[in-house]
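Can anyone check this?
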Amino acid sequence: MKISKQAWLGTVAGAMALGLMGAAPAAQAKTYDVTFYVAAMGGHFAHAVCTIDPSSPDPIKVKSLDKIDIGDHDSHPVHDARIDATNRNLMFYSTYHLDKATGKTHVGKVDLKTGKVIKDIDVDTPANVKNTSHMYCASGQTKDFFMPITMSSPAYIDVFRKSDLKRMHTVFLEDTPADVKVPYKFYHGTTSPDMKKFFITINESDKPYGELVGKVHMEMLDAQALSQGKVKVLYKGVADGNKKTTCSFRQYFSHNGKLIANATGDLLFIIDANNLKVLAAQPMGKLEETHDAIFTPDDKYVVATSRTKVLNPGVKPTDDPGPDDYLMDGQLKLYDVQAKKFIGKPVSVCQTCHKKEGVDEHAILCGLDANWGKTTK
C-alpha cells in the first residue's frame, strides 16, 4: 500500500524524532514577551512588541507597532534581519535589490536601543553574477562575522567583518564539495546557536533560475571555515516538496540546536538538524506564503511570517484572487511543534501600520528576528 505524504508525517519515526512518543499531556501553555523586527520591502523593519499566549484563539497580540527606517523602497528594500548573537542591541541587515541610484546593494547595522543606523555601506556585485533581480535575503553569523546570502545567479555568500563591515570573502559553492551539480534557483541559510554550523538550502530547478521542481537540497557547512572563505561540508540532505510552489526561503535553528524550522512558501518544514531529515511539513493556507520561521525560547512553538492576500471588501472568497481583489499583508502565525499544526489566528504586523499612515499599497515582508523577554506560566 502506498503511504501518502501526510500519513508519512505521522509515522513513529517522525514522532520519536520530535520527542513525542510517550509524551505526557500538555501542561498549561506559557506566555511569552517578545519584540519582533520584521523586514519589509519599503526600506524599513516593522518593530512589533508582542505577547504570545498559545492557549488563546488570538495567540499573538501586538502591544505596540512602529518601524525602524534604514532607507526607502528604492534604496533599501530588505529581507534580512539578523540580531547580533553576543549583543542583542545590535542588528545587521543586507538589502534585497540593487539600489536604483547606485546599482549596488547595502549592508548595514542598526542600534536597536535608538532605532538608528550606525553604519551603512555600498556593496559591489561580483562580475560573474549575471542575474541580480534578487540579491541578499538570508544570512548567518559567527562571533566576528556577518554572512549574508544572495538569491542571484549564481548565488554566493559574503563574509563581512562585524566591527567595520569590511567584506573579507565572497564564497561561491560551485566547484566545491557543496556543489549540488544541478540547476538551482536561490540559496538561503542560517547558523546554529553555537555558530559552529551553517545550514544552506538550494532549490533545484529545471534550468538555472528556472521553474522549481519541488526538491530542496540541504547542506550543513562548517561555519568557522566559511567565515574564512573555505567550504567544508559536514553532511547533506534533500527535502521533497511540491513542484513549482515549494521554495526554500529563510529558516532558524531551535535554541537547543536539534531542529530547524524552514519556511518554504507553501510549506513549513520542521527538520532534524542532526541528519537533515524532514519531520513535519505543514501546508500554508491558499492565500498565504511563509518566508521565515523562528522558535520560541523553549522550542515548543514557531512563529512564522506570512505574505497573506487579504481580500478587499465585497470580494467573494476565492483561492485565486485577481490583482485588484486583495492587498498583501504581512502577518505572523503560531505553529505548535508537538501538535504539528498552526494554532489560533494570525496577526497583522504590516497593514495595521499602513492603514494608520494612509498607505494604500501591498505590504511585502520576509525575514524576522526577535528579542525574547520574560516567559511566564
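Reply from J.R.: I decoded it. Residues 5-20+31-376 form a domain with the Methylamine Dehydrogenase; Chain H fold (CATH 2.130.10.10).
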